[in-house]
Amino acid sequence: MESIIDRRLFFKIAATGVAGYFSSPMEMFAQTTTTANSNATILNTAKNVIFILLPGAPSQIDTLDLRVGSWTPTNFYPTTFNGIDWPLGLLPQLGNVWNMNRFSIIRSCQSLALVHPLLQNWAQIARNPTSATGKIAPNIGSIVALEMEKQRAANQKLPGFLSLNGGGSLAGAGYLSGKYAPFDVAPAANGLANLAHPDGEAPFVNRYNMLQVADAQLRSLPSPLGTKMEEMSDYYSSARQLMYDPAVTNAFRFAASDQQKYGNSAFGNACLTARNVLWAGLGTRYIQLTLGGWDNHQNIYAPNAGIYPSARQLDVALANLLIDLSVIPGSDGRTLLDETLIVAKGEFGRTVGNITGQQGRDHYFVHSALVAGGGVQGGRVIGKTTPDGAFVEQPGWSEDRPVYAEDIAASIYSAVGINYTTTRNDDPLGRGFEYVPSTGAYVGKPVVELFR
């Protein structure tokens, strides 16, 4: 972390000098304290999170908030399922899971801009990326990993934050230590690469131990070379723990039969790996999955193109993930789905009504989200849009306004027992870093109607 001494931090340092002793800027950062509103709603219903980012922005009126019109392809087979219209031909397996009350839908989501990179980042850091703290903000997953680190057992060797198929849209750890950065992996049936040295375990262990002895003084805490060296040392020691560990190796491997069941796709492999990693219980508490291909400005209904490839991947993989987690035992008589909050959404929505002259749909503010597990009551629809799907008619929750990215973040934090009103004093700007910003026209709150 690059240390920046701004005006606020200068006066903090000066004030300690008046008190009769000297504090260095580094000591100021080291003395991390937090403040939070004790009246915040902390649900504490989940242990893990799977956040599925759908970059490109799916068309909500073709998926979770279906509107049937002259544009609707006949192979969508619109069907009324459990009280809502559903594109059974496009998302058949998720339709069956909806009928089993395994997930809920938020139809009153709304974005504040329509730029892909900006909003994809916004969804992950719970604030405008162009704001002052937006430039240093960690991924929600990094905050969860940091907060859950104290619960880690000695045998839990995986990073707290795992990303699968993250790609260029993945937000990192911001100003936090690299220890809480996303461990980004492209899942494969054979598991993680490089968990074994080509020369064998014994030669590798000997060389590694020699290296530790040779630069032990530089690796001591605090390192004479500063915090960057400490982070690098921690990075190497964490990577070393993953090697030659059968539990780690097996968590990232999967059988061909399971691969086929999950759709034999990159996203299917990611969902399968997420299932296995949480099942193994090796310390990962937040998993981010990415499935793109939704930016359908042209030919959205073209056969075997447009919306179809991504929708088919999402349908098969997510449906099987929900079903599998619902039967895998968790703790205290619960299932792994009971313990795992799942959120799937794009960065914004797409235009409603008839398609454009390019046979597609453009960017739009209103959109929907799928939410499941982790204490969520299945079979609920939060919010209602106008008959054409263009506007939020009824927000459907206690704040009586659209659901923004900050509210999704507050819901995630609250579900895993983290106070979303927390402010840390260790940010390099000296402003105080809020998990969910309290400034602006509204303050992010958890959508408690999903859980109660």
Average per-residue pLDDT, rounded, comes to 90
Low-confidence segments, ≥5 residues, pLDDT <50? 1-30
Number of strands: 17
**Any guess at the CATH architecture of the largest domain?**
3-Layer(aba) Sandwich
Q: How is the CATH topology of the largest domain named?
A: Alkaline Phosphatase, subunit A
What structural category arises from helix and sheet content?
alpha/beta
Counted up, domains total 2
CATH class of the largest domain: Alpha Beta
General form: globular
Largest sheet: 8 strands, mixed
Physical arrangement of strands within the biggest beta sheet: 7-6-8-2-9-12-5-13
Distance between the termini: 41 Å
Quick take:
With 452 residues, this protein is of the alpha/beta class.
Describe this structure in words.
With 452 residues, the protein is α/β, with parallel strands linked by helices. The chain folds into two domains: 32-194 and 248-450, 3-Layer(aba) Sandwich (Alkaline Phosphatase, subunit A); 196-244. It has helices at residues 7-18, 25-30, 92-99, 116-125, 140-148, 201-214, 216-219, 227-242, 246-251, 256-261, 266-280, 308-325, 336-339, 405-415; strands at residues 34-35, 48-53, 78-81, 84-87, 103-110, 161-164, 183-185, 286-290, 340-345, 349-350, 363-364, 366-372, 381-382, 384-385, 392-394, 423-424, 433-434. It has an eight-stranded mixed β-sheet, with helices on both faces. A three-stranded antiparallel β-sheet has the order 1-16-17, with no helix packed on it. A hairpin with a 2-residue loop joins strand 3 (78-81) and strand 4 (84-87). The model is unreliable at 1-30 (pLDDT under 50).
